[in-house]
User: What shape does this take?
Amino acid sequence: MNAGAQPDARIAPSPSLVANPRLSTWVSFPVRGYVTVRTGKVELGQGIITALTQIAAAGLSVAPARVRVAAASTQTAPDEGYTAGSLSVQHSGAALSEVCSRVRERCRTAAAAALGVSEADVSLADGIFSAAGAAVSYWDLSTAALLDRDGDPSGSRDDVTTRRADTAVVGVALPRVDLPGKVTGAGCYLGDLVLPGLLHGRMVRPPSRGATLLEAPVAAVEGMDGVHRVIRQQNFLAVVAEREETALLAARALRAGARWREDDTLPDESAVAPFLTAAPAHTETLFEDGKHQALGADTLRVSAVFSRPYLAHASIATSTGLAKADDGVLRVWSSSQGIFHLRAAVSAALHLDPSAVLVQHVESAGCYGHNGADDAAYDAAVLACAVPGRPVRVVWSREDELGWSPLAPAMQVRINAAYDPAAPGTTGTPGAVRDWRHEIWSNGHTSRPGGGVEPALLGLALQRGGAVPPALDPPLARGGGSGRNSVAGYDVGRQVVCSHRLTTMPLRTSAMRALGAHLNVFAIESVLDELAEQSQRDPLEFRLSHLADARGRRVLEVAAERAGWGAPVVEPDVGRGIGYARYKGTGSYCAVVAEVEVTHEVRVRRLGVAVDVGRAINPDGVVNQIEGGAIQSLSWTLKERVRFDRRGVTSDTWETYPIMTFSEVPAVDVAIVASAEAPLGAGEAATGPTAAAIGNALAAAVGVRVRELPLTAEAIIRAISAS
Amino acid sequence: MPEDFTLTVNGNGHQVRCDPQTPLLYVLRNDLGLVGTRFGCGLGLCGACNVLLDDQPVHSCDTPIATVGAGRVTTVEGLGTVEAPSPLQQSFLEYQAGQCGFCLSGILISATALLRRTPDADEATIRSALDGNLCRCGAHNRIVRAVLAARPGMTMPTETDPGDGPTGDDAP
Assistant: This one.
């Protein structure tokens, strides 16, 4: 590793620290023996609070048990934007590393003065500075004054995330700080929060996407015992009751008695591909590099089209919101991934001054992206404003969770690639890809509230009798949306990437784990395998000969070796396949080998994953995230598909939207490739490579390339018929 | 119309007044404050709300309070505590078996019932017994390892554990 005259990824400024430079914003010592750490990143089940605890403990030289990470709130937390994109360790971790190191050194200086010795003579252990038999601790110093300074966003001179000296705390598998409560039924989730006088709200959604409410039995339902209010504003319909079961019964009565006008507004589910390519779209060249090359007469060409359906986040909890309007202040409790953005959206939608809206994060089940959490927060806010002084909790039904949360967009990708067997490869082996064109059709992957001009909230759209504005895509420089991982991370000669982002959005879409990387990596890695096959080269060797990045090569080699790559697969209907990507082109490196068996369906027997996340702050946390990401991708890739008719989503229960079960989950082997480089996020790295490895293993097993997700028996039959 | 019901939860007697059709889940969470039992779907399809009724795992979201009768209900809180976790809970901690953790209450209940029934359950049996419990984070394999490791010498808490007797909430 280079120790640093040249700026590199390690000392890139943390945007979190640039935006929130004050040391006291991040750290304080309010209770003797404990450190309070504030972060704007939130726990989604990914274990970030544990990793940040480790970084803070290392930076301050205290035991991890002394660190208390405060739940993020708009009143106290640094504004770190969204908890998304596998960036929390890079942003919040880097900020805390710098802040805590600086706090430690400022306190060391003060301690030396207090002890009447030079700084060099002061030693620090578990928060206590000592020299010559005397000692002072963090809690003896005037830390409020000492921390009333800015950190240096340009980066820590003593970065605990890569410093070898901190191996006692960083780089070890500290047990998850939140797990003891979670295995003993603690009230740790948003839906468990009880406030005095709590009322229960339930939403009554329209029967279909384009429905208009004509009539609702408001008076009759308000007359039911225990019903507090019915709220009707255009197509926004809800009930507030004293007891939860009463709210459910009242919602049922409201739904049964409501009359709506309905229209067909959705495309034909069996013809999504033609819809995607024909719909109005914003077309943009995302990436263009390399010169046109003269291609030899023996050039092999592949032109292939890949697709995936709409997918659901399918959180195990349904979206929940809690709010209370009192004395001119609206308090909101939410599992949102972006509490400051949510505050901006809620205050704009309700015409409130942002300073009169307080948002507190409370954990819920894993969301894996932008599900209905923000919408439920707004629902609760609207209901709370209708019953001032009483807190209102809204819990979505399962049907609404699967039917009305934002979906991951359906996508289509076409790749045209040309391979010249005479051209020299990166490693000198003859044969190289010389021309590569990747074209994407998709709705945008981001419609989070606070991102656009108009607050993107379901409840607001229903109140206004309209729809949520179409989703957008972040620019490629910030990871991209549809285009995430669309730039092949290989040396493929001239490369052009073009996206067609739909400007109409019949089904509301937004961010889900890895965004476009799922299909983009699946497509890129499929085409590489097709070219390898046509040129009679081994898929692993083919990749290595197009990949100069040593860290990328290493994960491919490790995954292959652990999976016994190269040993022939002798069983019939069994295949092995490999997939690789560096997440976003700037994040973690990940390679996956899948072994697939095809009977009446596709069954994945095992997945072998190799990952380089830089310095792993918590190796067990990395393994857990990588394995979880692989299993979720497996579930999407093999069985998931949002079903809909011309009016609405019909896959709104676990029976119609099944996900992977315990019996279907294969063995997963995760190897962390040791690295001393700056830490990178782990949550989304496995998504694309897993899908790709399964697709390639399936092709090896059945001898036919299936380019349509999910990889069901029907999709295989269609591929065989077409071949 | 609301009626009075007496029920035994984690060894404690309770009296509640509610509509007979009220799902047990809401009585546990809202009347008894036992929020460890989670709402996941309300349709008995995800297992997040599982509790033991005597020794059988049931979906508390679609079990009307009127059908509980004299059955002894055990929730995740009745299995153990942070200070004194059950062997199965301890195993989940040792194997770090979870991510967001929302499914864990129901899974601990299903696995507890399985191991009472089949203490030497093999991996396939464990997976099959947990097929009614959905996990979206992909923690399945850790969870299965934790259940496997909890098999030998596992002793289950009973409803008459010392210190967990009837409280002042008892029916008169």
